[in-house]
């Protein structure tokens, strides 16, 4: 195997830590051009150490089984705090949509003693956890299980959620991004969006949101420091946003 440069080793370390790194963010981090970063990424991908994404780089498929486990370990205390906020607010007897992500799996852990819940989810880990409770009715969509992410996504999944109406829909996101000029103007109110890395992930979250009476977002503070490309919806369209510090109506 070709020997890595110091910068390539550092890029690889960031990818393993964050799972995804945007090219422009890496360019700023290392104070080099985006063309230089692309050459580094090409070299890492050629060696099978990374995988290209639109506008960035992530873990390769051969390492993807580690991806879900690494996310479980990331910001774990903060995610537990979010789960502890959310779970008590879900009434017994509710119909709940649960989206993908490790924070939502932690919420599922705290729902195992709820009564008469109907849970519709494409989060396989959450479904597995909730299967311990006979008082929880679980609905899963058809489709291919992404073993490295612990979920099911795709067009059929979005259609599946549209067949239900939920009291509460809970989604996570890959990033929170400000996408308009207001973000660069101190006097203007920023317009922030929940974002996903892939359009199919965003489409599923949109289906959850569209067919829920209450729309909740769970997001650790690190999501405000990341970048993703696929829009879900503006933050102001959520009824509640949960972070480790507090929830916001």
From TrEMBL:
Ranges in a coiled coil: none
Query: Which species expresses this protein natively?
Result: Vibrio rhizosphaerae
Q: The HTH deoR-type domain covers which part of the protein?
A: 4-59
The protein depicted here goes by the name: DeoR/GlpR family DNA-binding transcription regulator
InterPro entries linked: Carb_Metab_HTH_regulators, DeoR-like_C, DeoR_HTH, NagB/RpiA_transferase-like, Tscrpt_reg_HTH_DeoR_CS, WH-like_DNA-bd_sf, WH_DNA-bd_sf
GO molecular function per UniProt: DNA binding
Specify the superkingdom: Bacteria
- One Pfam entry for this protein is HTH_DeoR
**Keywords, in A-Z order:** DNA-binding, Repressor, Transcription, Transcription regulation
């Amino acid at each position: 195997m070709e020997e890595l440069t110091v910068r390539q080793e550092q890029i690889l370390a960031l990818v393993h830590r964050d799972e995804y790194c945007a090219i422009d963010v890496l360019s700023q981090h290392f104070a080099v051009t985006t063309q230089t970063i692309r050459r580094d990424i090409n070299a890492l991908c050629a060696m099978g150490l990374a995988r290209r994404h639109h506008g960035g780089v992530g873990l390769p498929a051969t390492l993807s089984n580690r991806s879900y486990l690494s996310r479980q370990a990331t910001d774990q205390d903060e995610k537990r705090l979010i789960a502890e906020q959310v779970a008590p607010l879900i009434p017994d007897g509710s119909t709940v949509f649960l989206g993908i992500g490790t924070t939502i799996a932690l919420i599922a852990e705290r729902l195992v003693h709820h009564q008469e819940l109907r849970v519709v989810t494409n989060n396989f880990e959450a479904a597995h956890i909730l299967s311990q409770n006979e008082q929880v009715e679980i609905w899963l969509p058809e489709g291919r299980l992404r073993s490295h992410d612990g979920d099911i996504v795709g067009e059929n999944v979005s259609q599946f959620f549209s067949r239900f109406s939920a009291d509460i829909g809970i989604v996570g996101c890959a990033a929170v991004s400000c996408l308009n000029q207001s973000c660069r103007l101190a006097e203007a109110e920023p317009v922030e969006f929940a974002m996903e890395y892939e359009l199919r992930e965003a489409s599923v979250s949109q289906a959850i949101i569209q067919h829920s009476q209450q729309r909740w977002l769970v997001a650790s503070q690190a999501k405000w420091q990341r970048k993703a490309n696929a829009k879900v919806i503006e933050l102001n369209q959520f009824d509640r946003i949960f972070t480790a510090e507090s929830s916001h109506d």
